Amino acid sequence: MAIQVKVVVQLLILIVIATAVRLYFLSWHDALKRDSITYLELADGIAAFPEGEAAPFKHISPRLAPYLWLLSRGKVWFHIDNERWGVILSCIFGILTVPLVYALFATLFDDFNGAFVAGAAAAVHPALVEYSTQVLREAVYLFFVTAGLLFFIRAVRRRNLLSLVLCGLTILLAAMCRTEGCEFAFLFLAFICIRGFDRPERKTSLLQGEVLSATLLAGLIFWEMWLRWMGCSQTILSYIAMHARF
């Protein structure tokens, strides 16, 4: 019980620190990167399109479509401009990444004091603070990548199939922000396959590989159908075919 109280207190302190640092940074830093301006212009065009949302997505890369759709929800859901909503979105995901770093360290090393230091470093790291106060995909991407790593480690250590499903889903969500997220899926599958060469782990690795592969495949099918429904001229299959290098 004492450990649980300690963990809750440490997480609350980390969230307060992360929030305070980002609000302070926003109070004097008001510049937007070139990519931010591009995303905002695209999101504004999507949100204000008179004939529906699908048409502006026709010429958008599939890897940008999910992020831009989420970015364009500010005017639709909360009636606020997309710039302010984009910053709020980045701040939320940036702050929520800090507890994930804490949980990742605690899961790896079973050291809550060390996890608190790791979380504090993530809360005040200049690059992470900047990413989470800009209209950029990086804060959202880092959140899902960290969550994917956490779920994968828990799945392997505890042989928890639900964690493996959550790992596949979060890595796919990361790939929807940046295509580099796909690399983590290949690394996780490769690890499971290599682990399967150990005879005592073969049956477990086979089941884990099937679960992770099925989750990734189901997610890709959903992504493909969503892009077609949104009216993208490129879908995942055509995007992979265009950028494949043989």
Keywords for this structure?
mainly alpha; flat; single chain; 246 residues
Global mean pLDDT: 83
User: What is the helical fraction, as a range of percent?
Assistant: over 70%
Strand content: under 5%
Q: Helix/strand/pairing class, anyone?
A: mainly alpha
The major beta sheet can be summarized as: none
Distance between the termini: 56 Å
Helices, by number, come to: 12
What is the tally of beta strands?
A: 0
Q: How many domains?
A: 1
SSE topology string: HHHHHHHHHHHH
Q: Taking Cα atoms only, what radius of gyration do you get, to the nearest Å?
A: 20 Å
Poorly predicted regions are none
Shape: flat
Give a short summary of the structure.
With 246 residues, the chain is mainly α.
What does this structure look like?
With 246 residues, this protein is mainly alpha-helical. It has one domain (2-237). 78% of the residues lie in helices and 0% in strands. The chain contains 12 helices and no strands. Helix 8 runs antiparallel to helix 9 (161-177) and helix 10 (181-195) runs antiparallel to helix 11 (202-230). The mean pLDDT is 83.
Provide the fold topology.
Layout: H1 2-28, H2 34-48, H3 65-71, H4 73-78, H5 82-109, H6 112-124, H7 126-131, H8 138-158, H9 161-177, H10 181-195, H11 202-230, H12 236-243
